[in-house]
Amino acid sequence: MAGVNRTDRLYALVEELRAVAPRPRSARWLAERFEVSLRTVERDISALQQSGVPVYAEPGRRGGYCLDKARTLPPVNLTPGEAVAMAVALRRMSGTPFQAKAGSALRKLIAAMQADDAEAARELAGRVHLLTDVPGRVPMSRAIASAVTAGRVLRIGYADREGAVTTREIEPLGYIGKEEHWYLVAWCRLRDAVRVFRTDRIHAVSVKAEVPPARPFRAEDLDIPYGVVTQLSLS
């Protein structure tokens, strides 16, 4: 496979590991298979791991690299237009708790597509331009973005409309998204009640080791005086 570009090689590498999973392939075997150096194989494996592909190193004389087949996608039969449509939608994740995950999801999607469809999708994407004439959303800190899934108490400084900052310990429960802002829903220990915090007003976030008690997240707790709140569905 000498002369194959890196994108195609990464795709072929995943498919090779998928075909023999859960058995491993050694780095030397992969280097010979794809006609590259051992260093190139190691760099490719590292790139796949960083993009979220579940490739693991198995130690031992008969070890090597193996793929968690249950956690990977088979080739996805999306059209180039469908892939670009998803890329456009994922661009709207800027300033949300899912911005970083959107990027890794898109990389996984492209890596799982048939090579010719993925190339056609890249060509089509190069013909699409997005005009932005207003500043983007305020970047969200990693601690806030992972607050709900991390399952830890946060200590935050929160500014009200006048800019006065109070220090609070909160137990994250969920998120509410609007076009302009995102909000973190949490049990506020200062107020001893559920409160909604605008994420761009949260300052000096620190994650505590404490795991909070399980609390229900009910629709009636979302006392929103404007707009209609709808629950996100994956179906």
TrEMBL record:
PANTHER family: PROTEIN PAFC, PTHR34580. Residues 9-65 form the Helix-turn-helix type domain. Residues 142-206 form the WYL domain. It comes from Amycolatopsis acidicola. Pfam families: HTH_11, WYL. Coiled coil: none annotated. This is YafY family transcriptional regulator.
